[in-house]
Description:
Strand order of the largest sheet: 1-4-7
Oligomer: single chain
Amino acid sequence: MATAYYRYISYPLEVTQVVHERKVQSMNPKRGYATWYTPTRYDDPTKAQQELALSKPPTHRVGPIPAGEMRDFDIQQLPPVAPAFGQPGGGVEACTRSAVWLFGLWDLW
Length: 109
């Protein structure tokens, strides 16, 4: 199992939430606030978009978050990401609906 996780975000309101509240959690109520994390560190936003099948390149990376600081995952098996948004997928992710509280945010641009 991974020793650290990362969250990649491009939604400005979620970035603001991390900066001002130090809270990492999806802001999408339609998906039950499910928040996806990966054990893979991407330094290239385009590669993160491709492997995590994101709709656009992420603007920020949150982490590394030690595994011991993560909430319980709803999906724990780290299955390969399915293709979506015209991206091939293939990266791995785990999901939690619980907020994670942090102290850092790194700008990828």
